[in-house]
């Protein structure tokens, strides 16, 4: 429970201004550091904290429990034993990604969630990969137009197992290798090809329209990472991360839908897109700008 | 005098199981909360006879008895005391109370007996009035008006039990009714209370009763305009302060009442100069230090929270008026900051609301005082405070504010805080669901990072970048802006 504004307010001592930098209207500042704050905001600095003396009026909400205790005592109902006191509550953690409204009770859960779903995300198609290695491979094989050219002449398909390092001329050869040498299942989920669109297409058509539109809107071109909000798209995203579906369908349709995406976006926006903001190109989500601009190769202009 | 350990049954109580008692208490608590939200929180007290304190299972006489008792009193000669005694028991019953005051001349009779020459009858008469004052019917207060000038006069008397009854009767009726309150003020209740406490400081039962009555007066509507100025102008504040230290034999009760009066005064007014001049901050804070130490050791009477709570509030609000230059002279002792820190922990599981209030006082203590922030670091309290950051419901936000106060003072403090592990703590708080925690965490992080490049490096080493990157996708624009600014202007450059 954050401290809520109280109905009864004190007059601010020493000045009539009422601006409260920390949005806690129930308190009144007994001292001011407005000059500094104004200066900061003028410089484009969004940080506004300054220490504040907080005066609490008698009727303030913060005092409620103590007052109740006092009156329980006056009415002979006070017990000192804490048997009936609730245990102190602990803050939850929540995924920051707008639209991902999952809440966690421990930090570990948060980290696991974040690492699983948001960390190794492809900037181009927003697919979430389980590791940096697989993300690298994904970016190279799905979004790098140079890759196709090079692959015609040399072994480019890198083994998915980290540390193996072997390269193959075709994805099929790699797959065989994975099955034979590394004992992978034939339907390993993170080894889908760009070209495999048939089954996915038909399957997708059977889904609801809104889900479809959400998926379409997922893929954005121009290196802009947009975050969508809706439970459905969330679930879809999770499914997608498990089954990397052919991006070629998206890649091919990107140009088709980029025009229509605007309209479909606005229509779904009303339904589901609550937050959609652009991240500057210098920062690519999920990959860390310090690591460079991955995923921007082969980006459509 | 009140015994804290016994949970007593109200009048007409029947045998309750523990479970029923718990249920009743919970209901009562809910009712009190609602009353407070409606700004109608008022309680009355009933002083029981010594012979009654064990058991209230006696059958209270019905209404008919009241009428016949009244007639008996009007006509009898020598048995008045016995009739009065019976009447007082009968008047425990709310409907009997109503019946009684509707009888013509009933109050006149009582007042006559109250002021008569028979001292024992006076005692019983005041007991009857006391029962009436405790009535749930608000009409009783006005009915008791004829008695008030006498009750006030008797406050300067020396008979303990009698004075106590007068006081509690007055205390019970004054919040009920504006007319009653006005009348009491005009009749001089404030000077009467002041001289009562002054003359009876040795008589702690009376002091407790007077404290209660003053508290009730301070709860009345428009107390700020009508009551408080008069109280502040009287000698009451200094007297209240002199009673604050609890007597080990008598117990906490008088100190509790006086502390709550002081809280009513400090939390209703803005100008605390008078109270500060009388040493209110000094007194309350040193008492907090000693009580705090006892609480932590587990070495206290039951109900010490009832005293610590108003003391905390007094200190908190007085601090907000105390200029920082005067702080060290007013506080005398920087150990307050350590005592408060330990109090938060002591209350964390038993009374989390008090833990929150303590954290608030810590904020006010550290807001503008470099000396106290330095003491916080010297006493190695920062790691302790960081342990509190998981706890919600206002505790962690206030504690983080305290840490922010410290970081705000000096670069050296930021560096010290970083050495003590604040960056790791922030890595967790930045991921909390509470947006205020996230915003405040970013503010603290900002202060830390701009104070030293090593801190920025440490933050990055500890994996802080991905947290900030994630925060750039937060719902709140203000949060996103801060994260972006931090990344772009201070970490990645």
Automatic annotation (TrEMBL), chain A:
Stored PROSITE patterns: ZINC_FINGER_C2H2_1
Region Disordered: start-end pairs: 13-43, 190-216
Limits of the C2H2-type domain: 95-118, 159-182
Biased composition (Basic and acidic residues): 190-210
Signal peptide: none
Organism the protein comes from: Ilyodon furcidens
Source organism, top-level taxon: Eukaryota
Name by which UniProt lists this protein: C2H2-type domain-containing protein
TrEMBL record, chain B:
Coiled-coil residues: 18-45
Recorded superkingdom: Eukaryota
Keywords: Coiled coil
Gene3D superfamilies in UniProt: Leucine-rich Repeat Variant
Listed InterPro entries: ARM-like, ARM-type_fold, Armadillo
Protein name from the UniProt record: Transmembrane and coiled-coil domain-containing protein 6
Source organism (scientific name): Ilyodon furcidens (goldbreast splitfin)
